[in-house]
Amino acid sequence: MSRLKAANNAQTTLSALMEAGADSLTVVNGDILPAAPFRVTIDNEIVEVGVKSGNNCSSILRAQEGTVAAAHQLGSVVNSYITAGMYEELETVAVVDAHKAEDVTDSGGVHGLKIEEGIWTPVLKGSSTAGTNTYSAQSGQYYKVGKLVHAPFNLALSAKDVSMAGSIQIDGLPLAVANTIVGCYFALISNLDFSAGYSQITGYSESGLSKFLIYQAGDNVAYTNITASNINNTTSIKGVIIYKTAS
Fold this sequence. Notes:
The structure is a single chain. The chain is mainly beta. It is built from 1 helix and 16 strands. The strands form 3 sheets. A 6-stranded antiparallel sheet has the order 1-6-3-4-5-2, with no helix packed on it. It has a 5-stranded antiparallel sheet with strand order 7-9-10-16-12, with no helix packed on it. Strands 8, 11, 13, 14 and 15 form a 5-stranded antiparallel sheet that branches.
C-alpha cells in the first residue's frame, strides 16, 4: 500500500492566509481531504500534510517535488491531485509488493532467496571399482539460488584407469540431491563407445546422493547403464546437472 493517501474530487479553499514559511494551514472543509499523510497543490506549490485534525493541517513539508514555497492568500484553492511524485511512489511500491520475502519459504537473501556460487571437482568413476583416471580437463562450477542448484561441468580423460569397473557415475556434486527429479544435459560428448543400438546419453540421481549415474539410450530400446567398457582413454563429457537440494 502506498504511504501517501488520496481522495477523489477533494477540493477546498484556505480559510486563512498561509505564509511562505508556515508549516500549518486551515481550510474551509477538511473532511473532504484524505487521511494524512497526503499531498495537496495550492497555487503552484505542492505541500505534504503530516497531520490533519478537522479543518486544521499541520506538520507540513513545503515546496515538494521541485516546487517553490510561497505565500497563499485566504480563498486559495487547495486541490488533492495525484502528483508525479505520488505516481512514482506507487510504481515503486508495486515493484516491492511483487517480490515480497513472504512469498518464498527460505529467507535471508535477495527477496528471501539465498544466492551462492562456487566450484566443484567432477570425478568419473566406476560403481564396483572406482578407478583413478587421469584428466586433461576436470572442472565444475555451481550456482545455487534458494534450493535450486545449477552445476555445469567439464571432464576430459587423458588416460583411463583399466581397473575401473561397473556402471559409470560422475561424483563430487557440491551439494546432495534432495529428490529424484533431476535434469542432466550433455552439451558435448566425444570418444565415447556406445553399445550397439545406442546413440544418446542421459543422467539420473537419487535423494541423498552427491553423484549421478550415466545411461545410454537409443531408438525403441530400453535405456541401460554406461559401463567402464564404454569409456576410452580420451573420453570427454561436458554438460550441466540441475537439481534441488535440501537446504
